[in-house]
Amino acid sequence: MIVVIVRGLGDIGSAVAHLLFREGYGVVIHDDPRPATTRRGMAFADAAFDGQAELDGVRAVRTDGAGEIARALERRDAVPVHVGPLGTLLAGLGHQVLIDARVRKRAAPEVQVGRAELTIAMGPALVAALHAHVVVETSWDALGGVITEGASLPLAGEPRAIAGHARDRYVYAPVDGVLRTKARIGDAVRRGEEVARVGATALLAPLDGVLRGLTHDDVPVRGRDEGHRGGPAREGRRGAGHRRAAAPHRGGRPLSGASLGAAPSTLTSPRPLRVERLGPGSECCPATPVTQQA
Q: Which of 35-49, 59-73, 81-95, 234-248 has the lowest mean pLDDT?
């Protein structure tokens, strides 16, 4: 069985892990012990806090040590989640593939080459064969493009407008600190209502609507991290397949679940809050800042 490490418990990392698990790969997700993910309703992120989470019929469970990971891979009844040091996982797992699906928009690109026979990275300003053997484009302009030569597009532009609201759908942590909140994804909020707090600073809903995403309570955040966001009712509730679309690839053939087996054989910022306006009785979907609103 080919074993894949997926870095990131956010919505993109969770979607990658979900698909590979359903395709029969052994999958282990790695992230920090208290990830600041906001799109928790469409991610496995809560497994880091609650011990388990379910997404579109697939469970993820937090594991403690190599023995539990090995047993989970053998049972194949859930995706194991490791929130310990990455180095420990890399040294003891015996994996063949590593996928960095954290999509770190404002952080310096991190080199993954050398951490598995095949490395794949997703996000802006990543260079194929330097940061990873293969890069996957995450910009809306070329979403899903597979790059084996050259680089992904740099971070640019503004969030896509929904019901006339773009950047103003997000709320950002104004200072470094620990985010505290009693709100829950799906809560209806009014403009100016307190959604969360970082230290003595309140984070207020910028629009009337419903919370689509919200960083978990008691999680450290950095100034300008996204705390919450929201979206209009017409988006509907979305699962692991959201944003899957046909896209061009550069310098090689498109990747598929099967193509992960063709690995080389010799290779050893701030997050925002988003809010989107919704009509009466509408549903909400989670997001990626500290909070997100619909």
A: 234-248
Query: Cβ atoms within 10 A of the Cβ of 241, count?
Result: 11
Buried b (16+ CB within 10 A) or exposed e, 127-164: bbeebbbbbbbbbeeeebbbbeeebbbeeeeebeebbe
Structural domains of the chain, ranges and CATH numbers in brackets: 3-156+248-261 (3.40.50), 167-238+271-293 (2.40.50.100)
What are the tokens at 161? Answer: 């407008």
β-bridge pairing 194-198 and 201-204? antiparallel
- Closest by Cα among 229, 180, 230, 228 to 202: 180
Q: What is the pLDDT of residue 156?
A: 82
Asked if the model's pLDDT at residue 52 lies above 90, the reply is yes
120 strand-pairing partners? 99, 134
Please tell me the distance from the alpha carbon of residue 17 to that of residue 22, in angstroms, as a whole number.
9
Query: Tokens at residue 279, please?
Result: 């009509």
